[in-house]
Write a sequence for this structure.
């Protein structure tokens, strides 16, 4: 008899939006604060509120962090701090616009010097395992440039 | 002499985040309201704040809307209302998690019956042209199920 295969499990995430007057809308997810949005200034929209492009960068950047935390915890890394910057580049090409690259730069502080290398390995794993990265096209480059240090050094 | 080629133009979108105590973080984009986030409840996180997965669905859903508006405006469609729901399915497969499908369901109201068909065509164009859709992998299915009606009918 063949091995029983593990059945993949699906999780569904839901949002809803309403478009309003003045070129702005609101996007909701049940039980969470509303997010006002608009087209970005660069594409004829508004400043001061989130754009779809900003939300895409935020999705990736926060996914990288949470994926890192998962691998860091498994490796016994005690985290003293984590912040990052993220940027996504949209190319307006002949065949239409698309993200071409994302760069996320985490600054990670671990509790002890002995954990620095394990944290670096967790970053490396997160780069490949983050579910938002994994959902992007093959032509979209995701790179992580992490600085890892130990607290008090 | 050969035609001069149009040079593609790049636009960069930036965010930054800080991870905090209690399994929550804050993601920022300059000049815009902060968004608190956490891993989703389904993956051991918190309810009540946005997750990376929610933000990914919001990015796609809002991008579909704004792309639709672009094509609708070009076709002279006068919009009386637009709302939508969006859902993204994450599959936890043997090789890791990934979005497998997004479904966005717009409810579009146009000012006049004569514009219904043009609005439907604009939806069809938006499905292919949305830059967030175009950045996703080939294995990620994006489908739109739009209801278009005329105001007062």
């Amino acid at each position: 008899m063949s091995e029983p295969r593990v059945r993949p499990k699906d999780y569904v995430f839901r949002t809803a939006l309403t478009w309003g007057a003045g070129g702005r809308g609101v996007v909701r997810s049940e039980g969470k604060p509303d997010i006002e949005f608009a087209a970005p200034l660069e594409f004829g929209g508004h400043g001061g509120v989130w754009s779809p492009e900003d939300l895409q960068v935020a999705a990736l950047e926060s996914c990288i962090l949470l994926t890192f935390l998962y691998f860091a915890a498994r490796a016994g890394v005690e985290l003293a701090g984590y912040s990052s910057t993220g940027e996504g580049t949209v190319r307006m090409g002949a065949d239409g616009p698309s993200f071409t690259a994302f760069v996320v730069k985490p600054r990670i502080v671990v509790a002890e010097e002995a954990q620095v290398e394990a944290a670096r390995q967790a970053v490396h794993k997160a780069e490949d395992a983050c579910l938002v990265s994994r959902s992007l096209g093959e032509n979209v480059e995701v790179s992580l440039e992490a600085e890892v240090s130990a607290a008090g050094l």
About this structure: The CA atoms of residues 70 and 119 of chain B lie 11 Å apart.
